[in-house]
Specification:
Helix content: 25-40%
Strand content: 15-25%
Shape: globular
Structural class: alpha+beta
Distance between the termini: 46 Å
Order of helices and strands: HHHEEEEEHEE
Largest sheet: 5 strands, mixed
Number of strands: 7
Radius of gyration: 17 Å
Number of helices: 4
């Protein structure tokens, strides 16, 4: 462990050595602690967009940002073809991209594509794509929402 004072037993809810062993298991899932570590490691802000609440929680404070769409269980990266060299990494001060990711989150919420952990409800998984020429979206945005039954919404 490189930062024993920052990631101690009180933060990790277990001894750091035990935590490292646990998180490396194939059936362990990460969350805020891991997002904070990844933000520092890659020197990128991570913006987690909660689909149910249409809110953004930020990890790290860097010039570049990676947005993740969160359905209360899984994190999925947001990407745009407008950034050809690195489609999932954007300048943090780019409000156009921020608005696009929020637009996709609103579309997913409209189709109830989040897990309601309080009421035990969830819908079929949807898959989304950001590219170009999506009707109703900002210029240059393409968001297609698919599931196995509808094959496109």
């Amino acid at each position: 462990m490189e930062h024993p004072d920052e990631y101690n037993e009180a933060i990790l809810d277990k001894k750091p050595e035990d935590y490292c062993e646990w998180i490396l298991c194939g059936d362990s899932w990460g969350g805020g602690i891991e997002l904070s570590i990844l933000s520092k490691y890659f020197q990128k802000t991570i913006g987690v967009v909660d689909i149910k609440n249409i809110t953004i929680e930020y990890f790290g404070d860097y010039h570049e940002i990676i947005y993740l769409l969160y359905d209360n269980v899984h994190y999925d990266v947001f990407y745009s073809e407008s950034n050809k060299e690195s489609p999932g990494v954007f300048m943090k001060n780019n409000d156009t991209i921020k608005n696009e990711v929020l637009e996709v989150a609103r579309e997913l919420k409209k189709h109830q594509q989040y897990i309601d952990t309080q009421n035990g409800a969830g819908a079929l998984p949807y898959y989304y794509y950001i590219g170009s020429n999506f009707k109703g979206a900002s210029a240059g945005v393409d968001a297609a929402v698919y599931n196995e039954d509808t094959h496109g919404v």
